[in-house]
UniProtKB/TrEMBL annotation:
It holds the Pfam family BCA_ABC_TP_C. CDD domains: ABC_Mj1267_LivG_branched. GO terms for molecular function: ATP binding. This is ABC transporter ATP-binding protein. Keywords: ATP-binding, Nucleotide-binding, Transport. It comes from the Bacteria. PROSITE patterns: ABC_TRANSPORTER_2. Residues 7-240 form the ABC transporter domain.
Amino acid sequence: MTTPALLSVSGLSKRFGRVVTASDVTFEVPAGRALGIVGPNGAGKSTLLNLINGTLPSDSGTIAFDGADVTRVGAARRSEIGIGRSYQIPRPFGGMTVFENVLVGARFAGGARGSAAHEQAYDALVRTGLAHLAGTRAGSLRLLDRKRLELARALATSPRLILLDEIAGGLTERELPALVDVIAGLRDDGLAVVWIEHIVHALMAVVDELMCIAAGEVVAIGDPADVMADPRVFEVYLGSPAEVVP
Ligand SMILES: Nc1ncnc2c1ncn2[C@@H]1O[C@H](COP(=O)(O)OP(=O)(O)OP(=O)(O)O)[C@@H](O)[C@H]1O
């Protein structure tokens, strides 16, 4: 029996003038599964996350979440129903504590109130291994903990689907496993994960499926090792082959 998809994207297309950023993109992600997305710079990866979380409207195609068509649903509502998102450039409130930063996520992006917001925020800190730093000023965190905070802010909205945009960027080889473990834990807890990442070996340690896109088109999708071995994937990376070597 196949697991029904939590996220179902079908024939999704988007262009900015002459630049095609999504062209007939189709894929599914069930709960408890992780999809990795790779592709050269400017391929349309971040745009795809913006289409899924509703910060950008698509030109055509459909996005279904938990069986409901959300293609024309606004970003705030998508966040409330369980689509969470981290950003490539985290912008924490440096003068606020770690807990206060996550509380903002729970209250304003997640729509939680009172003690429920506090519980969601604390739970997000526990899941990301940040609880011991709850009272620390966010501006003083080292990079790994800033990444955990970005993840915690997205988790504070209690998502069932989490969209991660290059969350591992800038981490050292020694730091990467800690973040990879947190993300694998979220998937194992039943979240659907869509993770864009240039650090391919970090992705390969977690994802169940891998999709390569270039110029908005799906070049290959499927078993991660098969996708990385696909000559078409190698070809789209010819400009930057070092990025694909695990
Ligand atoms: N709001 C926008 N208006 C116009 N063009 C845009 C907009 N957002 C993205 N683009 C263009 O769409 C293309 C895809 O951008 P996108 O950020 O999705 O790529 P990416 O695959 O995430 O790249 P990177 O790996 O560098 O982050 C780029 O050419 C970009 O300049």
